[in-house]
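Bug #77: duplicate submission created two jobs. Keeping one. Sequence:
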Amino acid sequence: MNSTTPIPRTPSGLIEANNSLWHDATHHPFLEEIQGGRLSQGAFSTWLVQDYHFARQLLISQSLILSNALRSDYEVLIGGLVALESELAWFEENAEQFDLNLAQPLTATCRAYVDFLLALPHQPYVVQITSLWALERAYLDGWMTALPCEPRYQKFVEHWTTPAFHDYVGNLEAAVNTALEAASDAQRHVAQDYFRWVARYERDFWQMAFAGE
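Kept job's structure:
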């Protein structure tokens, strides 16, 4: 990035400044084949198991982020933790229905992303909250591209695109807006670097399940 290029000071500015990378994080053949009902059950099962592992570690990471948070962000972060616990139970119910083995090991891609999450609380709070918003926004934007979808995967796509999830992502975005505005230029640089890392990890996560690993 050229030193004369303005550093994004808003969440929307981060997306606009990294448009190509963001597109790759939120558009993928995995999602296209979900929409058309063509994705193999094996690829979807791989994704479900790995996303379960990811959600478990995200809950731990977000708990640590909460310990560093601004008082004004407690409500949204605590609400996210409650939703994550419910999400884990939902995964477990569906694993039983589809006879999935949730004890399968993490893939290398999932492990790298999880390690990123667990190291995140050591960064300044603006970097933490920006990264959390980015991964949730990428998740939402990605699944929105799968709508409308074939009945085979409809209940899953609808589960990840609910109005409540839209609201949660919007509340995280408001928190990021406040944090970026108060941050130094150096902190905004790091926040943008981590935004880019999240986008790459999200892109790779779709590919992991689609192509196999």
